Amino acid sequence: MDLTARTAEQIGEALRRTRKARGWTQSDISARTNLRVATISSLENGDAGTKLATVLAVMAALGLEFRMVERGGSLEIEDIF
Amino acid sequence: MDLTARTAEQIGEALRRTRKARGWTQSDISARTNLRVATISSLENGDAGTKLATVLAVMAALGLEFRMVERGGSLEIEDIF
DNA sequence: TCGCATGTTACGCTGTGGCGCAAAATTTAG
DNA sequence: CTAAATTTTGCGCCACAGCGTAACATGCGA
């Protein structure tokens, strides 16, 4: 499951896939973040206007964190050792 | 240079470090994104209210992309093969 | 087929991001 | 030490996210 993203759409898609993989509903995320279900929906559908705080809250609820990497950069030897 | 982030502060810090590593000024990023220097400043200083679109624009200008990973998750064998 | 769960959309409201413009504050170079 | 470059902050303005609430659509199991 690749969770690389350059766009809001890709971020929303990644969050939705992770949520489903956890077997959770948007309502579950809502309860864990105090964000409205509508807000989760909007984010998962790729709204680039979403605030960073909202994205981070959902990611925390899903147990995810960001890693910023060189565009298109795959694994490099230095990353391993 | 580790660019892992769970908070807006860490994201801002990572963006600033990457920008400096490129030898660029906030003004350079501003020119490449059509965002105000003040907006870049705010983001680098960890404003969680920043819009996703703004973060993504700056990341694109820096040649970065997001990778969402399990919290605290380091490299796993499956990531390599 | 029907009904409940899940997800999407809408309305009015408040708070605030990002804009232009500009001035202060801080950092860096000479 | 001082001037220039870089960054931060402020003001008025407009646009819109996220809120409560609710209706509507979609999906899925009994």
UniProtKB/TrEMBL annotation, chains A, B:
Gene name of the encoded protein: hipB
Identification of the protein by name: Antitoxin HipB
Entries under CDD domains matching the protein: HTH_XRE
Residue span(s) of domain HTH cro/C1-type: 15-69
GO molecular function: DNA binding
Top-level taxonomic group: Bacteria
Species this protein is from: Tritonibacter multivorans
Taxonomic placement: Bacteria, Pseudomonadati, Pseudomonadota, Alphaproteobacteria, Rhodobacterales
